[in-house]
Design goal:
Pfam families: Trns_repr_metal (PF02583). The chain is mostly helical. It is built from three helices and no strands. Helix 2 runs antiparallel to helix 3 (about 85-100).
Length: about 100
């Protein structure tokens, strides 16, 4: 693995939110590498059960990362809003994103 990603300060997410999300995604990445190994080593039909179970776990972990991204965005974007209208607009945008991708 290469060097860690540089976390850039910005308005999208806090540095801690980014760090938490990146850590979660690194765990998902590890799960996917494990799934790849299980597939490569699969020998008996029952091995497919283990692969399916690990794929489901990785999918759930990735879904959880998506929820974490949205909740962090809601907190950050509405918290940084200059006024109520800006907060409403940010919340509406995030709700639309949730509806589109979830």
């Amino acid at each position: 693995m290469g060097e860690p990603l540089k976390i850039v300060e910005g308005r999208a997410l806090t540095a801690q939110q980014k760090k938490d999300l990146l850590n979660r995604l690194a765990r998902v990445e590890g799960q996917l590498r494990g799934v790849q190994k299980l597939i490569a080593l699969a020998d008996a039909p029952s091995d497919c059960d283990a692969v399916a179970q690990q794929m489901a776990a990785a999918r759930k972990a990735l879904d959880r990362s998506f929820v974490q991204l949205l909740t962090a965005s809601i907190v950050t974007h509405t918290g940084n809003a200059g006024d109520v209208e800006e907060a409403k607009a940010a919340a509406a945008h995030l709700a639309a994103m949730f509806d589109k991708f979830a």
